[in-house]
Amino acid sequence: MNHLLSIKDLTQSQLLQLLALAKQIKANPQGYAQALAGKSVVMLFEKPSLRTRVSFDIGINKLGGHALYLDQQNGALGKREPVSDFASNISCWADAIVARTFAHSTIEQLAEHGTVPVINALSDMYHPCQGLADFLSLSEMFDDLSKVKLAYIGDGNNVTHSLMYGAALLGVQMTVVCPKGHFPDGQVVCEAQQIAAEHGGKLVLTSDINELGEQDAIYTDTWISMGDSTPMAEIEAKFKPYQVTEELMQGAGANYFMHCLPAYREVEATAAVVDGEGSLILRQAENRMHAQNAVLVTLLG
């Protein structure tokens, strides 16, 4: 494991080891307080962030390392100077690069031209750190993830892609329910289905909310991605039937609700669900730091 660009690049063993290490770090933070002593991590952010920036910055500090944040005020990646130059220059000083970008190709170029580990903190195709935090959260609720039924409802996006790869590797039965025209990337679906077949999992896609079936947890995301200029009225017309409500949760027998945040109450999910007893949203947010720390320790420790 040289980088974390996508969960699909991991083996099942590597994914399980990351989740186990994240649990150890969470339970015994003092045992890892010097894991990154003397190490510096540069964080390149093209997109605004709350959870990603704070969880990485504080997480690196808790591991005894140093984090340096660079946003677009310092020059957009590939515009002020080539991405390859960003990667090669930063590699002269830093021990790792964390990047939150618009295009996944930017992440790939950083990994190709740099000589230090690169961690994808979000791109248009994948959000592996979120996926790791999500499965860490589920593993705290269920002893055997291969027995879990997880549903994702809404827009097929970078979060969906990472969830599908993670579920496939872990043998989770995953159902993805999206409005027509908003399904995940076709190649990702094919790859995830193949991985699922190899590990005893199952991936089902449908646009019919009535085919949801029994689920242990239901996951949703915002209906409109950051930077999308589509009018809300147009989005709502497509997505309103896919809103996660108490009735939907009860009908599926789902005990847990998941969301990567930010959440818009009474839009993609009702406030009663988002803030309900079975909501894992703050556990997921907290686990971002622990999961990312496991990746950092694995790559740099």
Radius of gyration: 19 Å
Largest sheet: 5 strands, parallel
Give the CA-based shape: globular
CATH superfamily of the largest domain: Aspartate/ornithine carbamoyltransferase
In CATH, the architecture of the largest domain is 3-Layer(aba) Sandwich
Oligomer: single chain
C-alpha termini separation: 12 Å
What fraction of residues sit in β-strands? 5-15%
By helix and strand content, what is the structural category?
alpha/beta
With strands numbered from the N-terminus, the spatial order across the biggest sheet is 7-6-5-8-9
Looking at CATH, which topology of the largest domain would you report? Answer: Rossmann fold
Describe what you observe in this structure.
Keywords: Transferase. Residues 147-298 form the Aspartate/ornithine carbamoyltransferase Asp/Orn-binding domain. This is Ornithine carbamoyltransferase. Residues 3-140 form the Aspartate/ornithine carbamoyltransferase carbamoyl-P binding domain. By secondary structure, the chain is of the alpha/beta class. The chain folds into two domains: 3-127 and 287-300, Rossmann fold, CATH 3.40.50.1370; 130-284, Aspartate/ornithine carbamoyltransferase (Rossmann fold). Helices cover 43% and strands 15% of the residues. The protein has eleven helices and nine strands. It has helices spanning 12-27, 51-62, 83-93, 104-113, 128-141, 158-170, 186-198, 232-239, 246-252, 271-274, 281-300, and strands at residues 40-45, 66-70, 96-100, 118-122, 149-153, 173-177, 202-206, 217-220, 256-259. Helix 2 (51-62) links the parallel strand 1 and strand 2 (66-70). The longest helix is centred in the last third of the chain and has 20 residues, at 281-300. The model has no long low-confidence stretch (mean pLDDT 96).
